[in-house]
């Protein structure tokens, strides 16, 4: 991934600037928008969190849970572990309870040798002991606790020591401790690959129950994710049937309300295949929205998208083709490149002159990539490095001269978990950083809120969990 934002200090306080009127949660805004960028600055991370925790306990804890969530959050294990000991004993115990749902058991096992209150250690020992006993005696498939419990045969000396501490804490001899873990792992078929995969993916993947997962898909990229899996596993006995089914699900997919005319500038670089947010490849998100919006364009722009290229061009996804065929066609356009915003605006302006019905005009240009940026100006220089002087105001004037609506520019850096920051330097430009299902839904429904609303929309699912404490 290309990183154009080398100076993270430029973003300090940016959440506050973009959320005037929300001073009561200013520290939590700064935490929410900066916490994922501070992996190498533990002191700053802890300072931000402590300020947010004192300001609004529930919001700070919700951010922490979102930071760790392996399914729909940031999946940041190290940062989560750095912050967990800063909580009150009561809140640490609550997070121990939440671990199986949002993280991995080894997120909390190490607390037994950390300088936390004895109350926390007793609660942790009771929780682990009860779960391990249940896994050992139950006829049901066990949890993944046994997989993540430390063992003395590990190569890491710290893990060996932690295994000895845990066997003693559970009142077991080293031999009996090893036997119990081995038995539970064997009974649950918790081999290395399965356990790792299950820990890092939410339930409902193709490896589990495909039909249930597909029937539950509610966002375009979830359908594409299923389709890609069957495309990559053609020997699966259900591949043909499920592919046909998914093509139908896609064809019938609708959203309530009108969809704003959105033209996608699609980044086809290799990193979009390689990088992920949760279990989704960046490419799956980009391709899903590329197809989704192209199918809803009409007139001169029907079924079109634009390539992210030094020489951007229109590509047509033939109307009526099934989803799989369109995904295969997208793979033919994978140029690793920067692009030229001036050329893109020229393409839109020229094509707009062919429009005969005003409802066919492009109202929004959506750029999806994995590059980072610090400001609208940096965005302009990054995606148009040779012609930085081609400002948004210049092209707004060109569109106005032709009496054509100047499309809003939405630049979505999907990869960075550092979420949305509305642009302040240019009108008609929105910068979004990071993936969440709520951000994606807001893009689909053309309802991009301000920094505070984005934080609240993202954290709302986590607030209930932490408020139960």
Automatic annotation (TrEMBL):
Protein name, UniProt field: DUF7788 domain-containing protein
Coiled-coil intervals: 28-62
PANTHER family: OS06G0652100 PROTEIN, TROVE DOMAIN-CONTAINING PROTEIN
Domain DUF7788: 267-447
Gene3D superfamilies documented for this protein: von Willebrand factor, type A domain
Lineage, broadest ranks: Bacteria, Bacillati, Bacillota, Clostridia, Eubacteriales
Entry keyword set: Coiled coil
Domain of life (superkingdom): Bacteria
Pfam families: DUF7788
Region (Disordered): 188-214
């Amino acid at each position: 991934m290309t990183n154009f934002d080398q100076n993270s200090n430029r973003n300090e306080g940016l959440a506050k600037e973009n959320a005037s009127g929300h001073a009561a949660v200013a520290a939590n805004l700064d935490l929410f928008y900066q916490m994922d960028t501070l992996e190498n600055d533990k002191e700053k991370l802890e300072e931000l969190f402590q300020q947010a925790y004192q300001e609004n306990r529930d919001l700070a804890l919700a951010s922490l849970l979102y930071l760790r969530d392996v399914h729909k959050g940031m999946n940041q294990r190290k940062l989560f572990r750095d912050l967990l000991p800063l909580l009150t004993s009561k809140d640490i115990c609550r997070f121990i309870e939440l671990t199986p749902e949002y993280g991995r058991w080894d997120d909390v096992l190490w607390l037994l040798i950390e300088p936390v209150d004895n109350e926390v250690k007793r609660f942790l020992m009771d929780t682990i002991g009860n779960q391990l006993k249940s896994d050992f005696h139950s006829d049901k498939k066990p949890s993944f606790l046994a997989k993540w419990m430390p063992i003395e045969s590990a190569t890491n000396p710290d893990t060996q020591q932690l295994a000895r501490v845990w066997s003693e804490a559970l009142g077991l001899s080293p031999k009996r401790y090893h036997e119990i873990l081995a038995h539970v792992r064997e009974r649950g078929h918790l081999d290395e690959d399965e356990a790792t995969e299950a820990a890092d993916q939410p339930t409902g993947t193709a490896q589990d129950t495909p039909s249930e997962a597909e029937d539950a898909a509610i966002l375009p990229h979830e359908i594409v994710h299923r389709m890609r899996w069957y495309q990559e596993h053609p020997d699966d006995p259900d591949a043909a049937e499920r592919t046909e089914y998914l093509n139908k699900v896609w064809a019938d997919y609708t959203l309530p309300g009108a969809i704003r005319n959105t033209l996608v500038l699609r980044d086809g670089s290799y990193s979009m295949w390689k990088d992920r947010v949760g279990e989704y490849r960046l490419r799956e998100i980009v391709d899903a929205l590329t197809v989704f919006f192209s199918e809803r364009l009409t007139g001169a722009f029907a079924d079109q998208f634009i390539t992210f290229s030094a020489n951007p061009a229109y590509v047509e996804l033939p109307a009526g083709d099934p989803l799989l065929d369109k995904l295969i066609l997208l793979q033919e356009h994978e140029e690793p490149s920067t692009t030229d915003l001036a050329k893109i605006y020229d393409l839109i302006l020229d094509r707009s002159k062919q429009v005969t019905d005003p409802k066919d005009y492009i109202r929004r240009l959506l750029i999806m990539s994995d590059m980072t940026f610090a400001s609208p100006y940096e965005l302009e220089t990054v995606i148009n490095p040779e012609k930085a002087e081609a400002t948004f105001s210049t092209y707004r004037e060109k569109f106005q001269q032709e009496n054509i609506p100047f499309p809003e520019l939405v630049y979505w850096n999907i990869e960075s978990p550092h979420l949305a920051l509305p642009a302040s330097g240019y009108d008609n430009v929105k910068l979004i950083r990071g993936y969440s299902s709520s951000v994606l839904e807001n893009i689909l429904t053309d309802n991009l809120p301000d920094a505070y609303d984005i934080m609240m929309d993202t954290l709302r699912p986590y607030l209930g969990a932490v408020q139960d404490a």
